[in-house]
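INTERNAL AUDIT FORM
Audit reference: QA-55
Scope: verify that the stored structure record matches its stored sequence.
Auditor: D.O.
Record contents follow.
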Amino acid sequence: MKNRLKTGIAAASAVVCLSFASSCGDKQTADVAHSYETLTLERTSRTFDSYYAATLKGCQDVEIRPQVSGTIVKICIGEGAVIRKGQALFIIDQVPYEAALQTAEANVEVARAYVATAEITARSKEELYRKNIVSAYEYQTSRNTLQSRRAELALAEAQEVNARNDLSYTVVKSPVDGIAGMIAYRVGALVGPEITEPLTRVSDNKSMHAYFSMTENQVLALRRSGESPDSLLRSMPDVRLRMSDGTLYSEKGGIDAISGVIDPSTGAISVRATFPNEKYILTSGGSGTVVYPYELHDVIVIPQSATYEVQDKVYVWKVVDGKAVSTLIGVMEVSNGQEYIVTEGLAEGEQIVTEGVGMLEEGCRIE
């Protein structure tokens, strides 16, 4: 630890505390000396790691649901299979939808015949109207009939399109590349758009999203740089992923999204990091820990061994006029478990005792 403190911090110096019964209260003889180490504080820049529990999801984690109702007659894939976009996954009974399409096609032909008849009638009435053989009412009626027949044809054609689409939906296809999940239904099961459990899930795992949360204060500290949201994301450091078995994932990832909404129940803000996953090591639905390195400039760093706690408050022994003075400080914990970043209570150039703090008492003379 001493070697780590040498960079940016004054080297520790040995001092002697002369034990007097009147000042230190340890009831030892005055000529017994105890050696301590002190630290002269300086401001420095340090990089620390912060750890955030994360949930892993594929870049596209798609629920596969049928768009029409019917009985499953064929399952075209196996569970865990590699899926390509557009590949058939399930086939639903097509017979009623083929019949509906044939009916729709027949209705279109009937509507076309009505339109043809109405066109002939309208042309005939127009010719007769010009010769003053029929009234304007009859002529206008023929034109209205033609317009009505054309609308009926358009409706029939739309119904044919719907019937054709419904038939195509009986072949349930994958909208993305990915890996198939477990299959919830088997051949013979009656399914439809209203089912609660999807037929299966297809996860595009070539890239993996790690979702984690930062506190509002942490995100505010990042945004105080004044950068635009896009510039902020581009300037953020690469992050690492510690997997559930404790090993560090070989590929680095990048933060590419920060939510603009605070969760009112937790006060946290969702953040997303993306990691490449070409070898399919990471699995959608898994968990891990995002390791986020952050750099602090112009800060005072002290070892945790130089502090002690009283009722959850952190104190140090500051050397003032050659005496130990108990001083309350504000600190920010560092993930290495060995250091604190001082937020208040200490200033550059001051001296603190770094070891043996449990043996000191207020006013103990330091030489």
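Auditor finding: record pair retrieved intact. The chain is about 25% helix and 40% strand.
Action required: none
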